[in-house]
Amino acid sequence: MDRVIRIGLLGCGTVGSGVVTILSREADDITARTGAKLEVTRVAVRDLTRQRDLPLDPSVFTDDPATVVEADDVDVVIEVMGGIEPASGLIRRALTLGKPVVTANKELVAQQGPELYAAALAAGVDLSYEAAVAGAIPIIKPLKESLAGDRITRVIGILNGTTNYILSRMTEEGAAYEDVLADAQALGYAEADPTADVGGHDAAAKCAILASLAFDSAVHGDDVFREGIESVTAVDIGVADRLGYVIKLIGIASESEDRVAVRVHPTFLPKDHPLASVRDSYNAIYVEAEAAGELMFYGRGAGALPTGSAIVGDVIDVARNLLQTARGATESQHRAKPIRPMGELSTRYYVLLDVDDQAGVLAEVAQTFGQHDVSIAQVWQEDTDGSARLVLITHRALEDDLRATVDALNRIDSVRRVTSVLRVEGEILG
Amino acid sequence: MDRVIRIGLLGCGTVGSGVVTILSREADDITARTGAKLEVTRVAVRDLTRQRDLPLDPSVFTDDPATVVEADDVDVVIEVMGGIEPASGLIRRALTLGKPVVTANKELVAQQGPELYAAALAAGVDLSYEAAVAGAIPIIKPLKESLAGDRITRVIGILNGTTNYILSRMTEEGAAYEDVLADAQALGYAEADPTADVGGHDAAAKCAILASLAFDSAVHGDDVFREGIESVTAVDIGVADRLGYVIKLIGIASESEDRVAVRVHPTFLPKDHPLASVRDSYNAIYVEAEAAGELMFYGRGAGALPTGSAIVGDVIDVARNLLQTARGATESQHRAKPIRPMGELSTRYYVLLDVDDQAGVLAEVAQTFGQHDVSIAQVWQEDTDGSARLVLITHRALEDDLRATVDALNRIDSVRRVTSVLRVEGEILG
To answer: CA nearest A324 in B: which residue?
Structure first.
């Protein structure tokens, strides 16, 4: 006789429905793979009156999530409510009761990850969160398990599908940010309030989770330097294209000298970088490790079924462990390594200036860069009507020096405006 | 006090040395992550007199691998000897003794996988083989665990680095196969006898392993239809390029109507397919799953440290399980699903013919295709000196019908030679 593992589901929106659908559709194969039946016995929803087209008995629904966690007929808790509270309290209570938890809550894991991992460790049960980063893409398990014997040096990810969709369409159609965003909103690819996506908050949370795992450190969402894509223009994208780059919103986490650096911002990425060809709303994570070398993981970062697939994969792991009274890989010690201040970043920069179309401007601009120890690698001027546009690509420079340069440029009379400043990955091209 | 897990290593060539190096270099972090020290206590080598620059006591070496497996001071066995025997017997003996085994032996797993999985299951210990497919790329674990709740429909992989290197250079330099192969041999990227790589045998073994996992079936290396890259010419690559394709040696495994289809051959792949931009000696595996959608895993498919990284990841898993007297995910039932005969494949084809440069040839060729139910999508003729070259791309057709067409073409007087026949993935382009 197959054992039964009883599941309590907290939340039954898009992702929760995806989980129920997959568990029902693949029930036989899942039983064959685990030796157990996975049965959804309790589901907490916000609105009990809403009609749901799911293969569940109406009696499983409740609007009191605490009863799901406490119930004797719940062995495993899946949290897909999102937000910090009540999700955090419910998860902690479940762990205390010795019930393993699977969550897709990136915001919560980015904010309270190390405390939650400690609570799971103390209770001796699993806390799994594959679905919290990059939807269907297996990345938590590869970092935590497959690469456990390696030394990861850098993780670069396209971690937000909405912004990648917007930037891809701007690149392919030469369209303006505002137009593509409006279209994405109409199509349901972007929220009415798109701040979490376009401001880089969502990507920053995921970047913090990846950095914590990759570098065995307690990296908090607020530790991540963050710039969104709101000010990226069609001109920036055109310049990037001519120089052999695409502009992508990427999260970069790295470790050196026992300090962790984490940042999310739009970036010039060389067209031959494996991440450059990640189009549409796809996500991808590029990992550099000392022994393994370069790895990339690519797939759908969101959606009911892709995210549901990751959650069900976690649930199967947890079920296997429950049946053996074992638990899966745990996170490492998670002391908080120091975060490298953004000002100490050394990278290359693209700077776009609107200047007066008159003699001597270029000399003055070049001198300003030089005075702040920022060396110019490429420069050219394009005349527009009345004014001129100056495009500069620098050699590697310190972020602090670049910022001082921009401040000084803003004080030059013949410089009308510093239009764009973007960071450039990789070596000099073209 | 940390527990000690004692490792016996069978084989200490390139990959074995990589494993020893990583275990020594990352010893502290590995202990932090597992709660155990991993110590190499016995190493079986072929030549005891050979000088080895490894951080191991000389007393650990022996030229009798059986003693390593039997030794009381060996808890886990790593097999990196390669070949079928004595590797198979040693692994089975280790499992019988209750010792988990980590192997990188693709040939063995492709040939005896299901029997070995059954032996591990019976003994209640782990048998792990992440390193057997695509070196450093985590693909076994994602298929076996992350996607355990999903339904995989197709797996397409660039599974052999040597052939991808050769085809990439042919594509980028317009060079001939023989020249690039000779160069690759001089550089050590290809063996003196390159048959295992260029003939597709290595890729076929890996494809069988992936198909077994993806479709819960016992797929044997010999079940894989196989064509190598030896007859791919610069002309083929030029035609592919003009039509919007690259030629790659890919392994394709799919399941439909409870039958499994597995094949390895050079293929026209659309340039916008994620696998098309996998250059040099990199490997990549593209997975299509019902809920997760499209996923891709990319990285180094070979080399001492990349392969070593995958092995050490497995060893850490195994060690964690040993400490809990648990075991990891097992393969499913592995009944052998029927293999779909290659003749029933339906795909598009590229056919290149050398024909007499005279009126009526095209009509006769077109009629031959039509008589065998193969519909032509694109055709054009290029005159060379004295003869003409006819390039044809078909609509989807059955492999059996295409073969009959080729036989009939070979019987036409004005057809001097059927120069190339290659399969085409994806929809019609250009």
So the answer is: B326
Locate A53 and state its tokens.
């087209």
CATH superfamily of B3-136+304-323: NAD(P)-binding Rossmann-like Domain (3.40.50.720)
Q: How buried is residue A49: exposed, middle or buried, by Cβ count under 10 Å (0-12/13-18/19+)?
A: exposed
pLDDT of residue B33: 84
Min distance A380 CA to chain B CA atoms (Å): 31
- Residue B430: which pLDDT band, with cuts at 50, 70 and 90? very low
A264 closest CA partner among A278, A253, A274, A276? A253
pLDDT digits (tens, 9 = 90+) for A277-307: 999 999 999 999 999 999 999 999 999 999 9
CATH topology of domain A3-135+304-323: Rossmann fold (3.40.50)
Q: Give the minimum alpha-carbon distance from A233 to chain B in angstroms, rounded to a whole number.
A: 26
pLDDT for residue B12 is more than 60: yes
Query: Which member of B106, B144, B206, B248 is catalytic?
Result: B206
Q: Do B297 and A300 touch (CB under 8 A)?
A: no
Q: List active site positions of A.
A: 206
Q: Is the pLDDT of residue A117 over 80?
A: yes
Helix then strand then coil, in percent of chain A rounded to 5, is 40, 30, 30
Whether A150 sits inside 8 A of B313 (CB atoms) is yes
Q: What is the pLDDT of residue B333?
A: 60
How many residues can be counted in chain A? 430
Predicted-assembly ipTM surpassing the 0.85 threshold: yes
Q: Which residue of B has its CA nearest to A28?
A: B149
Nearest chain B alpha carbon to A305: B291
